[in-house]
Specification:
2 domains; Tumour Suppressor Smad4; six-stranded antiparallel beta sheet; alpha+beta; 24 strands
């Protein structure tokens, strides 16, 4: 186990060796808590290396960030043609790092004003990358043109989707206001519900849909949807317009496919998550389907098993119990037909006890899963019966979500492929 005493500062420069395996070819961008490098291995193969700067983190937060980093690395091993894939992980001087494939490419920010770009192709392939992430229980959370690569063979790959250190890292790097007189442009792509991420107990796929909407608007117009963004006062105005769904439709007046694009942008840029598209397929289905079809990877586990032989199970895609399975028919106790779910706590009995060490967003009595025998349908309901009042249903503190839709105490039907979000945990519904 890494301890505070084992963490040492790493100021790697050009030609330095990292972990005795990778030579630094170029130092790339840095945040408060991580640093990226372009590196070569001993055979000359090129990679991008992302290092968690644990020495910059308050010693009291290091263990929490290590737990989050470990969970993030394990859960981001996703095979996809639309993502830069992780090929190796390690630790150097007490600081975790991951190695990602290097693509000969240019990021979208350098091409976004190029009117010759095939907008439909780029839009579709961004959405395919997001779909692969979301079906794997991940949310990008940092989708900007800089994190969208256009490869030499003119395909899209999403990068920088692994947030080493999890929520603590996200908080450390969010809301950078002024750098001299300029504001951090990445804030333009941030969904309104993330303006106060410290109060946002569950990060949902819908935040990426909002970011996609901003990028799509730029692709079509060369501008940001809610106005310019250069100063702090601009940022206040930008936030206000975003919260009011006041994006500039007039810039699309001369576009031949105006109605299609406005329809898509309306369901992407909604400040209210209820009005926003619930998943990327909703957007893909609005685009022409005669070309640029999705190409999967052989052996990929992106898709959840659909063929039901015995019943449904919950597969932990993100969290302390990554890759654990809960087979619902085997857990359910008769005759109640109810499975209780909550935070692992000695004072409370739940049939599914979810362990969380890096956060505290799961209630001790968080939700239930119930079987309708007559229709052979499983439902999830937020909350449980109150232990002190058998007639009172007590909802969870931070909510339960299926895909990006909040579940009420009335319940929500679940089917294979659904992603259930409970706090920082993501569980995929699968058949077995």
């Amino acid at each position: 186990m890494i301890t505070n005493n084992s963490v040492q500062r790493c100021d790697f420069r050009m030609h330095d060796m990292i972990d005795g395996k990778f030579r630094v070819e170029r130092v790339l961008n840095s945040t408060r808590t991580d640093q990226k490098f372009k590196v070569n291995d001993t055979s000359g193969n090129e990679y991008i290396l992302k290092l968690l700067k644990l020495w910059e983190v308050d010693p009291g937060l290091r263990q929490k960030m290590l737990l989050s980093a470990d969970n993030e690395i394990k859960s981001c091993q996703i095979k996809s043609n639309y993502l830069t894939n992780i090929v190796h992980t390690g630790v150097v001087n007490g600081n975790p790092y991951l190695l990602m494939e290097y693509c000969k490419s240019v990021d979208l920010s350098r091409l976004i004003r190029n009117q010759k770009l095939d907008k439909i192709k780029i839009a579709k392939e961004i959405l395919y990358g997001l779909r692969d992430l979301h079906k794997s229980g991940k949310v990008h959370c940092q989708l900007t043109p800089e994190n969208i690569l256009i490869t030499d063979n003119n395909h899209v790959k999403l990068t920088n989707y692994v947030t080493l250190g999890g929520r603590a890292n996200l908080l450390a790097n969010k809301n950078k206001t002024l750098r001299s007189q300029f504001i951090d442009k990445s804030l333009a792509y941030q969904a309104p519900e993330l303006y106060r991420i410290e109060q946002c107990s569950t990060v949902l796929p819908s935040v990426d849909i909002f970011s996609f909407g901003v990028i799509l608007f730029q692709l079509l117009t060369g501008e940001l949807p809610f106005g310019r963004l250069a100063t702090e006062s601009d940022w206040i105005h930008y936030q206000s317009r975003a919260k009011s769904n006041d994006w500039n439709k007039n810039t699309l007046l001369r576009n031949e496919q105006r109605d299609m694009w406005i329809g898509i942008l309306d369901v992407c840029l909604s400040s209210d998550t209820v009005g926003r598209a619930k998943d990327v397929d909703e957007i893909i289905n609005r685009l022409p389907d005669d070309e640029y079809r999705y190409v999967g990877v052989a052996g990929s586990k992106v898709e959840a098993p659909q063929s039901i032989q015995h019943g449904l199970m919950l597969h932990v895609m993100q969290g302390d119990e990554f890759d654990k399975y809960y087979r619902l028919p085997e857990i359910m106790q008769l005759p109640q037909r109810v499975i209780t779910i909550g935070r692992a706590d000695a004072s409370v009995f739940n049939m599914i006890q979810l362990s969380e060490q890096a956060s505290t967003y799961i209630s001790r009595r968080h939700c239930t899963i119930e079987l309708d025998d007559e229709q052979d349908i499983w439902y999830i309901r937020d909350g449980q019966w109150d232990k002190n009042n058998s007639e009172d249903w007590s909802c969870s503190l931070n909510g339960t979500f299926v895909n990006s839709e909040q579940v009420t105490k009335e319940g929500h039907k679940i089917v294979p492929g659904d992603i259930i979000s409970i706090g920082d945990m993501k569980l995929r519904v699968e058949a077995y």
